[in-house]
Write a structure and sequence with these properties.
- With 315 residues, this protein is an alpha+beta fold.
- Among the domains are: 91 residues, 2-Layer Sandwich (TATA-Binding Protein); 114 residues, Endonuclease III, domain 1, CATH 1.10.340.
- It contains 14 helices and seven strands.
- The strands form two sheets. Strands 1-5-4-3-2 form a five-stranded antiparallel beta sheet. Strands 6-7 form a two-stranded antiparallel sheet.
- A hairpin with a 2-residue loop joins strand 6 and strand 7.
- The longest helix has 32 residues.
- The protein binds a DNA duplex (13 and 12 nucleotides) through helix 5, helix 6, helix 9, helix 11 and helix 12.
Length: 315
DNA sequence: ATCCAGGTTCACA
DNA sequence: TGTGAACATGGA
């Protein structure tokens, strides 16, 4: 892969590059690599694949250098620009959430530490659905293992200057693999039954252009086996960028109960009711800040450790 | 060993 | 509508 394109994307203020493109709480995949002021990530644009280096060019412009091969086109360039703008909410106005959050003392520290952070979803609809599938009822370690297996077996390897990343697979890439193989080879457990159903759904619904905030699409997607309320809410919140949507699970429920109710455990209904009372319309954004704040310092230390190695690799 | 993970399905009140 | 067991796997 060689440098084929360079995009300049405008961003509204305030914008936190580091905690928007890299989320401290997310489990690591080999799809991306981050240092203090740069992020690398692969994308599938239709059948094309590319690696993108992203960094700020001043406070108001995100620069994206694209590495791909001779098949890269002007159309792909436009689609990538649109994908990145949507993935990181570059054009969003954060003032609605900020007005509520500034008045809430429980939000003071997260807001200060993560100022300008936005929801991020570099994945398209199919990809984020796969991520939530491997998250279901499993430890982060096992999610990481399942994801790594899938990327190794069905994704591509992208050669970048001095290092390599993996790319996601497309729905077509896994059609016909079969439940038995997903179970035995990829260690998906009972999730093996569901993965191919996901691919079938997105064979007829373009995961790059369908709008997940359309209620009928999400209703239809929830008919797919393996897609329940949690998965649907994560997609609405992440890919759909609905600031009010929130997927409650056993993990964030504990974090939210502690920060907003001051208790170790609480029912999901009590947590969501509290969030709605305090951040109406922005429950998901409030949750995002609360969760990332818990992980920020420990994860940042790990990121710092990686920098010397990455710097060598990137030369 | 036994429990349980960043859930969902299915059966049965 | 609501509750509870079963579901694969692997680490604690």
């Amino acid at each position: 892969m060689r440098l084929v394109d360079s995009l300049r994307l405008p961003v509204t203020q305030p914008f936190n590059f580091r905690f928007t493109l890299w989320k401290p709480s997310h489990f690591a995949t080999e799809l991306e690599l981050h240092s203090r002021d740069e992020s690398w990530r692969t994308f599938r644009i239709g059948s094309l694949v590319c690696g993108v280096r992203m960094q700020m060019d001043g406070a108001r412009t995100l620069r994206a250098d694209v590495f791909s091969d001779a098949s890269w086109t002007a159309d792909a360039s436009e689609r990538l620009a649109s994908r990145l703008t949507h993935a990181y909410g570059l054009g969003e106005d954060p003032s609605g959430f900020l007005a509520l959050a500034r008045k809430d003392s429980a939000m003071r520290e997260p807001l200060a530490a993560l100022r300008g952070m936005r929801q991020s979803c570099p994945e398209n609809l199919f990809e984020i659905a796969v991520i939530t599938l491997v998250l279901q009822n499993s430890t982060v370690q096992r999610s990481t293992q399942m994801m790594s297996n899938l990327l190794d077996h069905y994704g591509l390897t992208v050669e970048l200057p001095g290092f390599r990343l993996k790319s996601f697979f497309t729905p077509q890439d896994i059609l016909g693999v079969g439940e038995a193989v997903f179970r035995a080879r990829d260690r998906l457990g009972y999730r093996a039954r569901y993965l191919e159903r996901f691919a079938e759904f997105f064979r007829t619904h373009d995961p790059d252009t369908e709008q997940p905030n359309k209620a009928d699409l999400m209703d239809e997607f929830q008919m797919v086996k393996g897609v329940g309320p949690y998965t649907a809410a994560v997609i609405a919140s992440h890919a759909g960028r609905d600031p009010s949507a929130i997927g409650i699970d056993v993990w964030n429920k504990k974090i939210l109960a502690k920060r907003f109710l001051g208790v170790e455990e609480a029912d999901a209904s009590a947590v969501t009711a509290e969030l709605t009372a305090r951040f109406p319309g922005y429950e998901g954004t409030a949750s995002l800040y609360a969760v990332e704040y818990v992980y920020k310092d420990a994860a940042l230390a790990k990121l710092e450790e990686q920098i010397p190695m990455e710097r060598r690799a990137l030369r």
